[in-house]
Amino acid sequence: MATPTPGQPNFEFQKLSKTVFLFTPPTTPPANSTDPTTILICQWMGISPKSRSLNTAYNQYRSLYPNSRILSVRSLPEYFSTATASTRRASLKQIISAIDSDPAPEKRLLVHLFSNGGSLSFSDISEIYKQGTGHVLRAKAIIFDSCPGRPTVAEGWAAISTGLPKGILWYLAAAGILLMFGVIAIGRYGLGIPTFLDRVFPKLNDWELVDRRAKRLYIWSDADKVVAARDCREHARLAKLEGVKVSTLEETETAHMTALVKDGERYWSTVEKFWEGSK
């Protein structure tokens, strides 16, 4: 397996909407190929296109599967604050045609979800696809990296606070966010009203929306302060109880969304072996 490469990818994506981007390789796969024909990457919240981690993922997939299409979906910060479900899904309206435009006679879809942003996007994609086509989006394999989570207030703060402005604006933004968290906590713990991420958690094990036959790889870290390992473990356990074939990769020291770079050789070797076992 190639050593993880963190630099900018030497290929370009076609912009289909403000959140959906498609890379189409210049060559077609050989007839006997068993590589994924499309790789669907659901990004984590607010990640920059120049992110070292995101570009490592692109470069690694291009190295492992040079003839695969890459469909990448952004998760915008406002999706976790002010945006409604209809607003989120409006930017995903091209997703059905993007997925179904795969020209391969035998389509093989590999899905890679990153953090709660990726979980939310895939939940929306699954619902849009089911509503638009009448059937579940078929996938050979799904990777859950640091997701799905049902964050506590502390974990939610850890996720959002890193993107706050500096100086006096930090205090204003922080006050607004903490007020929002307070309202959410009252609703969640006092009134029993689930948050949108609480609702995403079971949707990813809803076989009316997600392909039950797809093999799964869950990746988590005990040192993650944003998405707790306990939630990833629990989701994997519940899927396994439903008969899903589940593999896991457990980290002990890597922070949120860093294993794909900091423990890259082990990470991508596991991904490669997982796909081999999913054929």
What do you see in this structure?
The chain has 279 residues and is of the alpha/beta class. It has two domains: 14-150 and 198-276, Alpha/Beta hydrolase fold, catalytic domain (Rossmann fold, 3-Layer(aba) Sandwich), CATH 3.40.50; 152-194. The protein is 41% helix and 16% strand. The protein is built from ten helices and eight strands. An eight-stranded mixed sheet has the order 1-2-4-3-5-6-7-8, sandwiched between helices. Strand 3 (38-45), helix 1 and strand 4 (69-75) form a beta-alpha-beta unit. Helix 4 crosses helix 7 and helix 5 packs antiparallel against helix 6. The chain is globular, with a radius of gyration of 18 Å. The relative contact order is 0.15. The mean pLDDT is 88. Belongs to the TMEM53 family. The chain crosses the membrane at residues 168-191. Its main location: nucleus.
Whole-number total of structural domains:
2
* Overall 3D form: globular
Low-confidence stretches: none
CATH topology of the largest domain: Rossmann fold
Pfam families: DUF829
Protein name: Indole-diterpene biosynthesis protein-like protein PaxU
Subcellular location: Nucleus outer membrane
Main location: nucleus
Key features of this structure:
Rossmann fold; eight-stranded mixed sheet; 2 domains; globular; single chain; alpha/beta; 8 strands; 10 helices; 279 residues
In short:
With about 280 residues, this protein is of the alpha/beta class.
